[in-house]
Structure formats: structure tokens, C-alpha cells
Input
Amino acid sequence: MDVQNWVYEYLILQITFSLVCAQSKILFATQNASIKEFDLQTRKVIVLLELGATVYSIDYDYKNKQVYFPRYFNNDIMRFGYPAHCIVLHKVVSTNNKPAGLAIDSIHNHIYWTESVGSIGRIVRCNLDGSNVIVIAQTLEYPFVIRLDVNNSWMYVVERFSKIYKSSLDFSIQTNIETIYRDVSCMDIDMENERLYWIVDITGNLNSGRVDGSDVKTIINTNCKSPTCKNIAIDIFGTNVYFSNHNQLAMGNTSQGTDFTVLYTDTNRIDSIYSISGKRSTSLYYVLVFISTNNYGSII
Output
């Protein structure tokens, strides 16, 4: 084995080791309640911040180490520094009605979010400090989820009862990916493999398709079906897919036909999950997963 190959394999091992070690802790936020830290090794849960709000999305500004989230019924976007010895909550900007989806563009220092009045909604953008609010798109049909591929200047949007599509960041170009006949309220992107993942609420099927709309298939059946059970949160980290199974945080694999493991059970429904990983920044090799639910819950 020559030196170059040895160094290459050593780096691969180091990165893999970093990824494994990084997943030892999970951050999660609970609907109408708190943000907590969950240790995967010890199963210990620490409450970091009491919220008292409904949160359907969370994103992270990795350059400034700030967590951002919209408060659905409070009509605003908040942030706090993480990691930090003392959590201090800041209001970033007031929004229109019911902000649901949120995405951070750390490269251009922008926040994108969705908001709706009834079934009619829009996508709005501002700077990370809340200044320069601009409406990007209007008269959308209940936009609920937004994800960004900043490197390729695309945003991915779920209009909850009609379609999943990608659009240029200025909304001048749109390409349909999947027509929705049932409720879809969560979606995430695997940037490396150029695939989308989403859950169909009425069937509980966790589906995946390429970003061009091809090769759509069911990866996992979560056994959670509306209206008695809802899946409204999903996040991808490497080959792991984290998703809410009503009041459970579950983890499966992105391979088709895999089972899943329940990592955490709360007393109320989980509404949002987010992981910070190399897919957002090549300098980050750790994972933080956010959940949204209520009360302290139990771990199994």
C-alpha cells in the first residue's frame, strides 16, 4: 500500500469515526413545550429551553451557530445560540399568518419560510437578522415545507394537498416532482444521492424519489395512518432517515424495505425533526436532531 492510499483510507476511517461519535447526542424540540437534548448512549434527556409554541420546522445556521424556528400560532420566527451554556431566545422577525416551513441559506445569509391564510399561501425571504423582508411567491396552495439546495440554486416545496416541486430561488422556474392526492406535511433531501424523502399521511408510507421526479418508491411503511396517527416530520442523515411516528422518534434506513427502530417516545405528537450534518456543511461531521411534541415523554 503506498502512502497516498494509506492517507486516503485513514481519512475515510477518521470521517466515519467522527460521524459515529457525532450521533451520540440528539437535540429535539417539543410542540407547545420545550427543546431538549437526548444522549443516544446513556438515554439521558436534558431540557434546554421551554417554548410553549407549535413548531413545524427547525433549521440551523452553521456559520453563526444559531437555531431558527417559526412559531406557527405566534406568527414569528425565533432563534437561539447552540451550543451554549445559557440558552437565550431572540425574536428575529414577525411573519404573516401561520409560518410552517423554514429553511436557512447560510451562504447568502437568508431565511426562507412558508405562510398561509386559509389554503392560500406564499413564500417569504429575509436576512438572518430579520431585515429586508421580500415576498418570493404568492397564491400558492397551502405551502407547508421548504428545503434548499443553495449550491444549485434550487428550493424544494411541498404544497400540502397538491404537489411537491422544485423552483429556482427567485421562483422564476418550477418543475413538478410529485403530484399529491393525500396530505404530505414533511419532506427532506439527500443532497449526496439527489433524492427526496416524504411521508404520505393517509397511508403512512415513507416514499423516496429522485429530484427529477423519477424512481418513486416506498422505502418504509411506518404503520402510522391518519387520522388517528400522523407522520409530520422527517430528516435524512447519511443512510439514516429520522421520522416522527406520531409521538415516537423513529430511525430507519434509506434502503427500500427496511424496518425501523423507535428511539424515543413522548406523550404527545412529534411535529418537527432536524439534523445538522455534512449535507449542509462539509466542515460538520456531527448530527443534531430536533423533534417537536409536548411534555417530557418517555424513552424506550
About this structure: Helices lie at 3-22. Confidence is low (pLDDT under 50) at residues 3-23, 278-300. The radius of gyration is 18 Å.
